[in-house]
Predict the structure.
Amino acid sequence: MSINKVKAVGYPLAAVFDVNDQKSFRMLILWLEENILHTYVPEKRTELQNIDSPSWDIAFKNYCESHSSPIKTTEPIDQLEWLLGVAIRLIYNKQKNKFDSETKKTLEVSTDVPMIIPSDNPIDNLDVNSSDFKEGIEKLADLLNISKHPDHKITLKAIHKFITKRLNEEAIKNPSTILPKGEAFPLEKVKGHKIESKDPTVLHAMKVLRLAQLHRLRDLQTCINECIVAMQEVTSDPKTDTKLGKVGY
């Protein structure tokens, strides 16, 4: 069971409460009855007050029946869970306005002020919009020869992509695996549908994008070819069992 319910009802011994300890369990039941539930009149609580009595369990069973408990199991812990729920509901109903007001204040504070969770990780405490952070990204982009974007966060994503692909452990050990192969293709020879512009800078950028698109299409076609080959290995290799063949009827 959750100890939070025991704390919610204001039980003074919640810190040392042990649900598996018989005496601790019985003391909590008695405290709930005397301070919150008030199912019995004081004169009728004698059997519950005698927590060392051998017949206390029978008294507790009768007490739950007096409460019209819907719990069908015979486990005392299940009954306690239900009684704690009843107690919490009674406390709320008596102080509904107070709790509603406190809840409203909490929600207003939580929506106006962002929740700050302390962290020992220095990266979590970085101000990504500070001038120092932006300057650091620009210096790193210059060092890696990466074009800068007006949004420094996009530049940071490009740096991250470059480092993870080109400067990982495997790439450093074997650079030939990530270096482009073949001769460089001159942009002047790039031709495509509607690649026209009077501005040479714009035309240059359009040709680069065209080459990037062709490269992605080539990768896609390679993946499709690999799928076709894998399927053919399964479907185009029939095996014949000659033992099943027969001649005549």
Notes: The mean pLDDT is 84.
